[in-house]
Amino acid sequence: xxxxxxxxxxxxxxxxxxxxxxxxxxxxxxxxxxxxxxxxxxxxxxxxxxxxxxxxxxxxxxxxxxxxxxxxxxxxxxxxxxxxxxxxxxxxxxxxxxxxxxxxxxxxxxxxxxxxxxxxxxxxxxxxxxxxxxxxxxxxxxxxxxxxxxxxxxxxxxxxxxxxxxxxxxxxxxxxxxxxxxxxxxxxxxxxxxxxxxxxxxxx
Length: 204
Prior knowledge:
This protein has 204 residues and is mostly helical. It contains 10 helices and no strands.
């Protein structure tokens, strides 16, 4: 791994654990065991590093999700596997990461909203269409509307005012949201499949 890749990987791990605002370039250089001068030979500013970290993570996350979609057996299996993937990430992430992005780095948060949330919306839309074709989801809803509502619900669970981290666990919130989502759209056939194969997974 070259210096730039190692820098991005290490910074991501620190941001994930401590948030962005509280992690300094000194912290990153100490963790890497290299001087700040060496760091600044490959990156100009902390903002540039944050941008690289976020871009790298989002690319990887989208690739991982696409792999999950390719390997899932049906629409419900797909939703459950994506939920497990997101839950693993949320367990590693301090709630202050999103708070820092929204308060101190709004430009980067806007990029996430415009790009990554669009990817999530299109992924959920495709899942809804797939589930309707498979007969696992009801036919009497509009996939476009529900996919947009899903994204709105997803962003709301990161809201510290509505769900302060000292009172609400992010993983539990997300799983509760997915259960709510699935129970609202599954057909009778889908409900039976969910109960037989997947129900317990979302309660872990």
